[in-house]
Amino acid sequence: MTSTPAELDRLDHVAISVDNIATAVDWYTRHLRCRISYQDDTWAMLEFANTRLALVIPSQHPPHIGFVTPEAESYGELKLHRDGTRSIYIPDAAGNAVELLAPYETK
After folding, report:
1. Rounded to two decimals, what is the model's pTM?
2. Does residue 1 carry a pLDDT above 60?
């Protein structure tokens, strides 16, 4: 059985650890064509044509990959984030952090 794109979960973002958010944002915006959708001292979200890149401080968030799925709530209680999204972190089979986000409206 093949799923249609509307039935597939969506890659929302990849989050990488950086030592300094401002320095990392400066590097990415100087070297790549992207848009800053959010930035503070602890994390930033950069938008690209096909996905988003989160820059995170290790003490605030683990490096992870985030997926939007209607099944997110089946993994436990979702945490409300300051950007209005709700999610839960779970480990994959290799121990990598995976963030499962409840569906939300994109701009």
Report:
1. 0.87
2. no
Over residues 58-91, the pLDDT tens digits come to 998 899 999 999 999 999 999 998 888 999 999 9
Strand order in the sheet with 86-91: 35-39, 43-47, 52-56, 10-17, 64-68, 97-101, 86-91, 79-80
Cross-strand bridge partners of residue 1: none
CB contact set of 79 (below 8 Å; sequence gap of 6+): 86, 87, 88
What pLDDT, in 10s, does the model give residues 12-30?
Answer: 999 999 999 999 999 999 9
CATH of 9-101, one of 3.40.50.2300, 3.10.180.10, 2.40.480.10, 1.10.3210.10: 3.10.180.10
- Lookup: tokens for 29: 């915006």
As a whole number of Å, the end-to-end CA separation of the chain is: 32
